[in-house]
Each structure stands twice: as structure tokens, then as C-alpha cells.
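Closing statement on the magnesium ion sub-project.
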Amino acid sequence: MEQFAQQLLNGLFLGSIYALIALGYTMVYGVLRFINFAHGDVFMLGAFSGLYLNRWLGPSLASLHWSISLTIILVLSMLICAALGILIEFLAYRPLRNRPRLNVLITAIGVSLLIEYTGQHPAVFGATQQPFPALIPANNISLTGNLAVTNTQMIVFVTVVLLLVALRYIVMKTRMGLAMRALSLNPTASALMGVNNSVVISFTFGLGSALAAAGGILYASLYPSVEPFMGIMPGLKAFIAAVLGGIGNIPGAALGGLIIGVTETLVGGYSSVVGLPTGYKDGVAFVILILILLFKPSGLLGKTEREKV
Amino acid sequence: MLDVRNLEVAYGSIRALHGVSLHVPEKSIVTLIGANGAGKSSTLRALSGLIKTKAGTVTYEGNEITNQAPHRIVARGLCHVPEGRMIFPNLTIEENLRMGAFLRRDAKGIAADMDYVFTIFPRLLERRKQLAGTLSGGEQQMLAISRALMGKPKFLMLDEPSLGIAPLLVKAIFQKIVEINRTQGLTILLVEQNANLALEVSSYGYVLETGKVILEGPSADLRANPQVQAAYLGI
Ligand SMILES: Nc1ncnc2c1ncn2[C@@H]1O[C@H](COP(=O)(O)OP(=O)(O)OP(=O)(O)O)[C@@H](O)[C@H]1O
Ligand SMILES: [Mg+2]
């Protein structure tokens, strides 16, 4: 029972990071109706931003409390990746705005490969794994009973919660958030209200990419090694999380992320019981994808929108 | 106030408008009538920047606005209530209205105008926190008009406000449109299938057929015209 609770907890922490990434997929889908397959690579770029910023700024941040230097590195990485996300949309997707969606989808895969293989070049990040610095000092916190949570897990979870609250505020309470929701419901109508749809789309890419960057740093803090392909698996799983929650649905993406993280960790923890190697946990998300596409393609929280004529 | 000259619009190889010219004077209600597919909606879509024109010019308050982006045209005070209403179904009534006021920053003015539209359409007030997609068709039309008014437009284009609404409610909505025109000095370009009603409330009318203006004149004259009576008024 305790082992189960422990696995559940670990799954929750991992899932919270999937949730962060999934939000980017779902928001971009909301405004452009396409899957940005380069999103997992922005997650990778976020982790690398954290790595390099820490290398460059580390000495000058050394005198500060770790929580402050973590915040500085996190925020700077988020800003860098927001800018990159906006740039990717501007250069690669905007020219294809009124083309068939398949063209944009294939372009996104191209952008993804471009980022990954450019990253592999020795003059960029290089192909070998690099250790990620401990931005959060490690020590265990014991909860009641024998449940153990590391400091890092706790900070990851708190950061994700803070980011989700901030996102909710932006989407539900600000003018830009209202425009995002309106645009995702009807781009023609939002333009007729005076919304510059291109600006809102850029903003959405920036917002999603910032969350992915935070996800990258937090993920690398939990699993401290980074390499240019590190975004592929978490990216795919987060994409599945977004589909599971109902693509385009923001709370759905968060919920989907948690479900994928928890199921995956539980399967990893118990696969030996049924004689499977733990590696099978990476397949869980895909089984979930197949099931959801078979039985509820609109996702758990996805609504089929209806408009009266 | 609005001058349209020789407007041409095509969808791919399909030509929808072959040189439409219109004039809408300030504070007037002008109507555009015609059969299905005549090009009424295409005209409005070209005026609000939703589709690019092939040729022709649109001049508004002395400035040429041909082919400007929709959000720039709205910013000038031209507001288009499109065919099919296009309310935001998953936003509340209040959020829909706030979207209408998207370009405004005067919180007090927005609040006052929201009160104003609620006095015109009290049904919306009762449902302000409700999702707009749950409204009936007629209520959605009221919302679409209210949302447009929230932007404090100087020039309002309405595309078939009577579509799919019970005759009694149509009368009521048209009365409100005339009232808004009188009290707010709002200029209105009205597109209608219901030619009877449209010619009743407007001062001038254009009859569109397969992308061309085939007839125009003061609305009273058009109503007396045997050709119009036969084709559009069912007399
Ligand atoms: N998106 C489109 N693609 C191709 N053709 C179109 C498109 N929209 C309109 N058309 C064509 O343009 C012509 C004019 O259409 P429009 O919608 O302007 O007519 P309308 O006068 O508004 O008709 P209705 O009273 O039925 O709304 C029609 O022949 C129509 O088939
Ligand atoms: Mg029409």
C-alpha cells in the first residue's frame, strides 16, 4: 500500500511536468487548429537554456539564495523560449497560414528535426549527454509514514502549480486571454471584434513555449541529464496528454498530463510483478492514445461545439 | 459616409460581385436586398475586410479603406454583424459583450454601454453569466447586435438579422434597430431577405442580382415598383 502511494506521488510529479508541456500543444491547437510537433524541442531548448544560463550566470548568482537564482534562471529561460516560439511561428508557420493544414503539420515535423539535429552539432550543444546542474539543493523530506519526497520533487510541484495558477489568470481574466478564447472559438468573429489575430497567435506561441521551457528545466532537475533529443519522448507523451484531456481544452491538458504521468509511473513500478521489463512504461501513453482515439476521440473534457444557426 | 465604387469580388474562379457601387449617407438606414446567392453577404464581407476585393474602392469618411485588415476597419468604427451571427458559444453573454468592446479601454464607458444594451434586450441581462451557445436563435441574434453596439460603432452592417427568428421577434428587433439609429445617430447598412420589412425601415435601397445592382432608389419607390413587388415582396 505504501509502495503504491509512493508510486502515485512520483507519478504526480512527473505528470505535472507533462501537464505543463501539454498546455502548449492544446493552446496552439486552440488558436491554429494544428499540432506543433516542434513543441517538444522547445522543451529541450528550455532545459539547455537553464544549463547555459547557470554556467554563465552561476558565478554572479552564487551569493544569492538558491530559490532566487532558480527563479532568475527559470524566468530568463522562459523568456528566451517564448521568443524562440514566436520566431518559429513567424518564420515557419505564418507563411502557411491559409494553406491546407497538412502542409503546416509536415513543416512542424521539419522544424522539429531541424532543431534536434542542429542541436547535435558539436558547435551547438553536441550529441553527448550533459549533466544538468542541481539548481535545487537535494535533500529528502519524509512525509507521514515511509513516504519520501525529495526537495526537488516538492519544488517542481510547487512551481508547476504556481505556473498553472498564473496561466489560468491570463486565460480567464485578461484581455489577451479573452481574445485567445474568442479566436479559438471563431477567428472570423474575433477579427470582426477588432482582434489582430496574428498578435494573439504570437502571444499563444510565446505563452506555450514559456511553459515548455519551465517544463524542460523542471524535468532536467528531476532527471539531471540533457541532450538534444530529450524532448521527443516527453513531447509525445504530453501531446497524448493533450489529446486525452480533449485537444484545445486547457484544464483537460493538465488533467491528461497528470493521468499519463501517474499511469506510466505505476506501470513502471509494477511491471516486474507481471514479468515485464520496466521499459514498457514508455508504451503506456501510446496504449492510452489508441484507447482514447477508439472510444472517446474528443477526449475526457473535450466538448463537441455546437452553434445554432 | 460610405462610398463603394465598382466593387468586384471572386472566390477562386467564381465571380460573386461584378462591380457593385453603393452610397450610404451618414445617420441613414440603407438596405441591400436580393435573392439567395445575389452577393449581399459578399458585399459586406468585402467592406469589413474579411475578403479581398479584385477591383473597386471603398471610401469611408473620406479615407480609402479598400482591402485593409478587418481589425483596422473595425477600429475606424465600421462594425459587421455577420451572417449566422458568429457569437462565441463557449463564452458567457457578458464575455461576448466584452469582446465587442475589445478595442475600448474606457472601463466606465464599457459598463455604461453594457447597461444600455441590457435595457434594449433585457433577456440578455437575466442570462449574463450563461454560455452564449445555450441561447435560442433569436436571443443569439440579440446578442450579436448587442455585441456590435458594445464597440460604439459609427457604421453598422447587419447581415440578415431576421434569419430563423419568429415574425413577432423580428418586428421587435427591427424596432430596436430603428430606435438605435434614431437615438444614437448610428448609420446602418442592412442586408435582408425579408424585403418588406427592410424597405419599411430604410430610407434608400439597392436591389442586387447575380453580383450586380439592378435597381436602386428611395425605399418607398422600390416598394411601389411592380418589378420589386413581383420578385421580392410577394405581391
Ligand atoms: N466561400 C465561398 N466560396 C465560393 N463561393 C462562394 C463563397 N461564398 C459565397 N460564394 C458564392 O458567391 C455568390 C454570392 O454569395 P453571397 O453569400 O454573397 O450571397 P447572398 O446574397 O448573401 O445570399 P444569401 O441570401 O443566400 O445569404 C454565391 O454564388 C455563392 O455561391
Ligand atoms: Mg448572405
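The longest strand of chain B covers residues 14-24. With this model delivered, the sub-project is considered complete and its resources will be redirected to Aim 3.
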